Amino acid sequence: MGVEVDTNDSIQSLLKQASDKLEQISDSAYFDAELLLAHSLGKNRTYLHTWPEKKLSLSEKNTFHSLIEKRLTDYPVAYLLGSKPFWTMDLIVTPDVLIPRPETELLVETALDKIQNMKSPRILDLGTGSGAIALAIASERSDALVTAVDCSAKALAVAKLNATEFGLTQQLTFIQSDWFNKVPLTQFDLIVSNPPYIDPEDSHLRENIRYEPQQALVADNHGMSDIEKIIQKSHPFLTKGGFLMLEHGFDQHDKTIAIFIDNNYQNEQSIADLNGNWRVTLASYNS
Ligand SMILES: C[S@@+](CC[C@H](N)C(=O)[O-])C[C@H]1O[C@@H](n2cnc3c(N)ncnc32)[C@H](O)[C@@H]1O
């Protein structure tokens, strides 16, 4: 008769138990459990697949269980791990910054496309948060000089850590400012921004993002107030023919274009994501 082996503490068994629990709150329960277990062990996910029968020590199990308990309150995986993949980087994130979203890569792609024929482009990233957009552009264009602005000193501290981590400090200047207020009057070839654009009345959306800084997400006037301020104030900071490029909600491109037109911009254009939603709008300033 074979000896019965208690596999309750094995990687495989702990993953199954944790992902069953996480089903209540996550569409990616098994993946979340894998990320959190790998993090608890200081390993990557491949290790979990290679050693499914390995048993965890008590302290490893305790670490994993406390992460799962916190995740069950809807606390984001990225804050539990302290990092989030964006573009080609694994960015440091803390609860002081918005967790960079995959959809923001559309803004980065569109920005890189616009500057592809410019030598040493000067770029301004308004509301840099973790530095996601500024660092992605700088990492692709070693000749680009990027100024990264945020009103939050804590967010800027995270962006600076990321710049150091990815060896990009020489290309970046950081300024703490309420949009343009403290930005010296210089001219940029391109201004990019993923500003707050969620309607404060959108209670469903707000529920999903309750652990992220609200000043990073919510804007008055149905989510349009920061987009409007940025469009109104950008043109003295743009070279002749320079572009302002904004990420916005899937239903905000018409309003964004109307604000561009009211403020005498030209060549307005919206870009759709892979689902066909207009998520980026840009325009140039020629006079
Ligand atoms: C939607 S988050 C974008 C963060 C990052 N760029 C990204 O795409 O992941 C908006 C950012 O704008 C910043 N912000 C909000 N109001 C601001 C203001 N008045 N002036 C400067 N930055 C502001 C927030 O602190 C936050 O970091």
Q: Mind telling me the CATH class of the largest domain?
A: Alpha Beta
Please estimate the helix content.
25-40%
Query: Could you say which structural class the secondary elements and strand pairing correspond to?
Result: alpha/beta
Instruction: Give unreliable regions as ranges.
Output: 1-6
User: How many strand elements?
Assistant: 9
The CATH architecture designation of the largest domain is 3-Layer(aba) Sandwich
Rough outline: elongated
Provide an overview of this structure.
The chain has twelve helices and nine strands. With 287 residues, the protein is of the alpha/beta class. The chain has two domains: 65 residues, Ubiquitin-associated (UBA) domain (Helicase, Ruva Protein, domain 3), CATH 1.10.8; 202 residues, Rossmann fold, CATH 3.40.50. The strands form two sheets. Strands 5-4-3-6-7-9-8 form a seven-stranded mixed beta sheet, sandwiched between helices. A two-stranded antiparallel sheet has the order 1-2. Helix 1 crosses helix 2, helix 2 packs antiparallel against helix 4 and helix 6 packs across helix 7. The protein starts with 10 loop residues before the first helix and ends with a strand. The site of S-adenosylmethionine has 22 residues, from helix 7 and strand 4.
